[in-house]
Structures are given as C-alpha cells and as structure tokens.
Specification:
single chain; about 75% helix
C-alpha cells in the first residue's frame, strides 16, 4: 500500500505535468505573437516557454524535493511542443520552424527545462556538498 507522502508526490507530479502541457499549448499558439512594448517587440510565446519552464521546473523541484518534477514537466512540455511544431499531413503547423520565433520557442523552452533539471534544489544541494571545504576531509 502506498504511503500518503508517495500519493501526494504522484498527484503533485501529475498536476505539474498538466501545467507544463498548458504552458506548451498557450506558448505554442502565442509563439507568432510579437506585440510591441515601447517600440520593442516582445516574443510572448518565447517568454512563456522560457520563464514558464524555469518556474514550473524549479518550483516543482523545490516543492517536491526531487528531480522527478522538473524531468516530468520538461518532458511533458517537450512532447506537446514538438507535436505542435511538426507538420500534419494536411500541411497545418502551429509552431513553424521556419521563423525565428518558432525556433526560439522550441529551443529556449527545451534549454529552460534542462536548466530546471540541473539547477533544482537537489542539484544545488549536491553541488554544495561536493565543493564544500571539508568535503574531502569527511570522506
């Protein structure tokens, strides 16, 4: 029988994956949007992909204290983003890979997911343990 902590971790991970799928959908449909703020174009979909993946991945890792959360959220985002970036038999595509906005959406979102996996709380804690001054003496 599963312990309540394991059930909570599973439910939290599924909820974070659902948020990542929602980010991928919203970001994909807004990837061609480039409104101007103060005369400067702002790529909305790219910002959603990069910042959203960082926040959901690092926040999930911090909240669950596992690397499972950013891995699942990053993988969920990537699957949806690449499905929406591939051409259907009818020729429809949501995220075109020909313009810089579509390419930036896909690559920066994937990079943000990788950063979230590596920089999550467990990654920082493990790095601090390896590089602390007395780490070699304690071994």
């Amino acid at each position: 029988m599963a312990r309540p902590a394991q059930v909570l971790l599973g439910v939290t991970t599924v909820a974070l994956a659902a948020v990542a799928v929602l980010l991928a959908l919203v970001g994909a449909f807004l990837s061609p949007a480039e409104p101007h703020v103060g005369g400067v174009p702002v790529p909305v979909g790219v910002l959603i992909a990069f910042v959203g993946n960082l926040v959901v991945g690092i926040g999930g890792a911090w909240g669950t204290q596992t690397r499972l959360a950013p891995v699942v959220t990053g993988f969920s985002w990537l699957v949806v983003a690449f499905i929406l970036g591939s051409t259907r038999p009818e020729g429809d595509v949501v995220v075109p890979g020909t313009g810089w906005l579509g390419v930036a959406y896909l690559f920066l979102g994937a990079i943000a997911a990788a950063i979230a996996i590596g920089v999550g709380p467990n990654g920082l804690t493990a790095r601090r343990r390896r590089t602390s001054p007395g780490a070699a003496a304690r071994r």
